[in-house]
Amino acid sequence: MSQVLLIDYGASRIKSILYNSIDDQPIALFESAGSFIKYGNYSKIPGSFFSKSLILHLDYYSDKISILRKDCDLKIYLCSEMHGFCLLEQDSFNSTFYYSWRFKEKSTDSALEILNNRGFYSKTRMISRAGLPVVNILARSLNNELGTNSTFLTLPQLICRELGDHYNLACKTLLHSSGFYTDLGAKEDTLDITGIDLPISFPSPIDDYQKPLGFIAYKSNQYNLYLGFGDLQAAFLGSNLAQNEILINIGTGSQIISNSRNNSTFGLEERPFFNNEKLKCVTHIPAGRFLNSWCKFYDTLNSNNNFWKELSQLTYEDLEGFNIDIKFDLYLDSESEYFEQIDDLTSSNSRITPKVLLASLMISFCNQYLSYLEDSISKNSRIILGGGIPNKVPVIADIIEKKMKRKVRIKKNEHDLTLIGLRDFINRGF
C-alpha cells in the first residue's frame, strides 16, 4: 500500500492533496504561492523555488507521512503549467533558473520569423508565440548567448535534480509544449524545427507512466516522482467530459479544449493526450492574471470598491444599456498606459459608473471566448465552464449562454480540476 501525494505547480497557486490510498477520501490539502505570485511576469525564476515549494508541502504533511508503516511508501504525482524550461549550461550547473512562458528573450521577433518560415505550425500543430521554450532558446542562440553542452529540463526533472536525481525522462505533454518535438511530443527534432543544430541534449518521452521520472530525498527517505504532465491535460481529464462537450477552463490562465473527435472546428492547436488520443484547443487566453490586475486598478478608483464581490453579484440585467469597449490588445501591450486611459475615461464621463465599468469588462472578457466559438462548434456540442473564475463570477455563464443560444453548465468540484485529473489518471491506469 502507498500513500499518494498529488501536486499541481500552477502559476498562482501550488496545490496539493494527500491520500492514504488513492481510493480513499483525502486526508489533507495544502497550497502555497506559485511562481507568478512570487516573481511576477518576465522574470527568470530560481530553480530552487520549485524544490523548496515541494519541501514546504511535504513539511505540512510531515506528521501524516511519518506514521507510514515500513511496508508502505509515498508516491508523488505532479502536473505543472506548460511552456516552461530549465537549461543547464556546462559552466552553470550550480546556478539554475527556470523560464516560464511569461519570460521573453531579446531577438524574440527574429526567432519567431525563423520558426514560421520553417513551417513551425505544420510540424508541431502549435502556434508560435513569444515565451515558448523553442522561441526563447533560439533567440538566445541568435544573440550568441547559448553555451555548449547544455541540458534541457522540464519542471519535474528540475525538481528531481534539485532534491535527488532524474532519469532523463519527461511526459510528451510537456515535451510537445516546448516546441522542440514533433509527432505531438513523441520525437525530438530540433534541427528540422529551428534549422540550427543546437548544442542541447533533450529528455526522452516516457513510454510507461508506471515508471518514475526520478526520485527526491526527504528526511532520510527517497520517494519516486511520477507523471509530470501538463495542467491543460490534467484539467481536461479531471473534467470527465463526453465527446460532444467543450471545456472552457478559466483560472489563472484559460483555454478552450475538446477531444479531437468532437466535430467542432474552434481548435487552433492540437495537443497530445493519452491512449493515442489528442486534444484540440485554444490556449493562452487572458484570464485570472488579467482580472487580478483589474482588481488592483478598480479598487484604487474608490475606497468603497470591492472588485471580486461586485463581480460575483453582477447579473445579466446589469449588462444591458450603456457600455464601453474594453480593448484587450491594448492592455496586453502596455498595462500601465492602458489603465491610465481607463482612469481618464471614467474621470471625464459621469455615465461610466462602477457597474458600467464592470459590466463592460465582463462583456469584453467573454467576447474572447465567443470570438473562437461562434459559428465554430457543432450543433450537438455542449459548453462546460471549469476553473475557479466561473464559480466566482456566474454571470460569465449567463453571457456565453445568451450569446451562443445554448445551455452552459458551470462545473462545480470540491477540488481543483487538475488534482482531480491526476487522481483520475492513476485510477484509470493509462
Description:
The protein is of the alpha/beta class and 430 residues long. The chain contains 18 helices and 22 strands.
Provide the structure class: alpha/beta
What is the number of E strands?
Answer: 22
Output the radius of gyration. Answer: 22 Å
Mean pLDDT: 90
- Total of helices: 18
The residue fraction in helices comes out at 25-40%
The outline comes out as globular
**% residues in beta strands:** 15-25%
Largest sheet, strands/sense/barrel = 7 strands, mixed
Strand order, sheet with most strands = 3-2-1-5-16-15-9
List the uncertain runs: none
Spatial gap, N to C terminus: 19 Å
Output the keywords.
single chain; 430 residues; alpha/beta; seven-stranded mixed sheet; six-stranded mixed sheet; 24% strand
SSE layout:
Blueprint: E1 2-9, E2 13-19, E3 28-33, H1 35-39, E4 45-46, H2 48-60, H3 62-65, E5 73-80, E6 85-88, E7 97-99, H4 108-117, H5 120-124, H6 133-142, E8 150-153, H7 155-163, E9 164-166, E10 169-170, H8 172-178, E11 181-182, E12 187-188, H9 190-194, E13 200-201, E14 204-205, E15 214-218, E16 221-230, H10 231-239, E17 245-250, E18 253-259, E19 269-272, E20 278-286, H11 288-301, H12 307-313, H13 328-333, H14 335-348, H15 354-373, E21 382-386, H16 388-392, H17 395-404, E22 408-410, H18 417-428
Parallel strand pairs: 1-5, 5-16, 8-13, 10-14, 17-21, 21-22
Antiparallel strand pairs: 1-2, 2-3, 4-7, 6-7, 6-8, 9-15, 11-12, 15-16, 17-18, 18-20, 19-20
